[in-house]
Amino acid sequence: MEDLQQRPDHDRQGLPSPAPNQVYVNVSALNGGFLTLPERNFVTDPDPEKGTTVPSMCFLIEHPETSSAKPTRLVFDLGIKRDLTKYVQLATHHHITTRQPVYSSPDARSSLLSGGLDPAKDIDYVILSHIHWDHIGLPSDYPNSKFIVGSGTLYILENGAPYYPHDRIEKGSLPAEQTTELPPIPDSDRKHMAATSQTNHHWQSISTLPNAVDFFGDGSLWIIDAPGHIHGHINALLRVGPDKWVYLGGDCCHDRRIITGEKQIGHYDGGHGRLKCAHAELSKAQKTIENIQKLIDANGEAVEWIVAHDWEWASANQNRFFPRWMY
Ligand SMILES: [Zn+2]
To answer: What residues are neighbours of ligand 1 (ion), with CB under 5 Å?
Structure first.
């Protein structure tokens, strides 16, 4: 009989074993404001009356610098703008009225300040899972950070999204001179939207995930292509210990029961005779969720996974928000 324990990792698409002198990152959750999600817009068999006020979580990641005393600090997502009047699109303001109550405090900036970090000075990179209003935060709080976005993001920031509702993109809201887009995804049908990347990164597979970028080249922080929700949607896979990883799922889904398989992506009447869901490209969003489910299946307890609006995770893990650390 086959002994699962003795199977080599690649047979079950496991994550790689630590390299000699493997580098690990630390991670901590940050508050990025709160919004209210009506269940009927997100999952199958919803309670039509139920709305849940959920966090828009961000994450602080610290990569130890081997050559100097200072770690490299990254923030994954910036949450909701603390000043709601700073959204530029009328459609965004209208959308926000459908997500009430919305709380913009504590935001990512005040969360960092609470642990003694100054967003204007101490954050080297901001990685945005995507540019929806509840993830984009206030980029002007980070004048010295490099912004990293997924392929296709700059196109929709310039042109609006090529799908309904196309007018809810906060056009021009990232500082162009600070922003770098990751390279085009191999075999993508959206290559015409891809910007020329100024990074040396390349896409490769890791475990069950077909397209990932080894951000520091040492296997400690992987940016994952997670298509479907909106063009350029990316996730992150963090190596936090010899047999421990954290998967940051962004908006791959808005309800953890979709990852566990208890629910599916829901559809609702979006007006104008359209049946809508929370994702721009449904079949790609489903494939992304499948890949994450397979990652969890193949690696079991080694992977802790969190989606941006996971209120259950947040309420059970308040002691792992900055200035305390998850890992
Ligand atoms: Zn979103």
So the answer is: 132, 251
C-alpha of residue 41 to centroid of ligand 1, in Å: 13
Residue 276 has what pLDDT?
Answer: 86
Separation of 253 CA from ligand 1 center, angstroms?
Answer: 9
Residue 310 lies in a domain: yes
Token couple for 45: 């068999």
Cα–ligand 1 centroid distance for 70 (angstroms): 33
Residue whose C-alpha is closest to residue 284's, from 188, 168, 186: 188
Residue 1 falls inside a structural domain = no
Q: One-letter amino acid identity for 202? A: H
Specify the residue for token string 């993109």.
169
What's the number of domains the chain is made of? 1
* Ligand 1 center to 5 CA (angstroms): 38
Q: What is the CATH number of the domain that holds 194?
A: 3.60.15.10
Give residue-wise pLDDT tens across range 5-62.
444 444 568 999 999 999 999 999 999 999 999 988 888 889 989 999 999 999 999 9
How many angstroms is it from 230 CA to the middle of ligand 1?
Answer: 7
